[in-house]
Write a structure and sequence with these properties.
The protein has 258 residues and is of the alpha+beta class. The chain has one domain: 2-Layer Sandwich (Alpha-Beta Plaits). Helices cover 24% and strands 17% of the residues. Strands 8-1-10-9 form a four-stranded mixed beta sheet. A two-stranded antiparallel sheet has the order 2-3. The chain has a two-stranded antiparallel ribbon with strand order 4-5. β4 and β5 form a beta hairpin. The N and C termini lie far apart (45 Å).
Length: 258
């Protein structure tokens, strides 16, 4: 137990070190413009196809075993009879001060040099601790070793492992695509260009509501979009410092919704 507490102490101290986050090689960030999002769910479908996510069915969803890494969260705003049903895409927020990293007893989730919250499947022992600590309810547990009936098994992405029963998983910002872009840039002796990394959800979005890029690149689209006055983060009062930034919807009166 002493080793676990030492790990937590070292992690907390590293967060408090001045300039800690400036040491990152990249700061991959996603901006979600809610004024452009129509809730179609194309991003969800793209995530399923890219990352080999199983469709668990109605029965398991009823047991709170839904498996989507990215969901279109619905919520009700206002009081009856003046109520509005709204929606927002929610995925792993890749928090810079992630509670799940502190809670994992085997250090299966940690922050890498690209500013990503990484999940090491081979190290995970399925304690569910990270899901309990997660502020945004975006971590999923493999209750079974899911199978794809033929011919659907032929559509599995060979660049992404098929996870087995007993491990936790969640959105990775399509880290396999990030790695491929970095390797290509390294072979060509240059840095990764803005727009060269395109996660499946961003690629699938018909309205370009999701934008992905390196926040440390001042010329990137995300670096320019984060200065928008409509910017906010989910539950930012909890100081988890998410890497997903939302832009508020613009209402009919021209004002941003609260």
């Amino acid at each position: 137990m002493a080793g676990i507490f030492d790990k937590v102490k070292d992690t907390l101290n590293s967060y408090r070190t001045p300039g800690y986050f400036k040491k990152l090689d990249h700061k991959w960030t996603m901006v979600v413009d809610l004024d452009m999002c129509n809730g179609c769910g194309a991003c969800v479908a793209g995530c399923y196809a890219e990352n080999n996510l199983p469709v668990v069915g109605k029965e398991d969803c009823g047991k709170s075993r839904a498996f989507s890494w990215l969901r279109i969260e619905r919520y009700v705003d206002g009081e009856y009879p003046d109520v509005k049903v709204k929606f927002i895409p929610v995925m792993c927020q890749h928090c810079m001060k992630a509670p799940c990293e502190i809670g994992c007893p085997v250090y299966a989730t940690y922050h890498n040099q690209d500013g990503l919250n990484v999940q090491v499947y081979n190290r995970c022992v399925g304690t569910f601790t990270c899901a309990t600590y997660c502020t945004y309810d975006v971590r999923r547990f493999n209750w079974f070793s899911y199978k794809w009936p033929k011919p659907l098994d032929q559509q599995l992405n060979p660049d992404v492992t098929v996870r087995e029963m007993g491990v936790m998983e969640k959105c990775t910002f399509c880290i396999q695509r990030i790695t491929a872009a970095k390797d290509k840039a390294k072979d060509e002796g240059r840095g990764v260009k803005d727009g060269e990394v395109l996660p499946a959800c961003c690629q699938s979005c018909p309205t370009n509501a999701l934008v992905f890029g390196d926040l440390q690149d001042p010329e990137s689209r995300v670096a320019k979009m984060v200065n928008n006055p409509r910017k906010y983060r989910l539950l930012e009062e909890l100081n988890t410092d998410p890497s997903v930034i939302y832009l508020k919807r613009v209402m009919n009166d021209g004002k941003s919704e609260e």
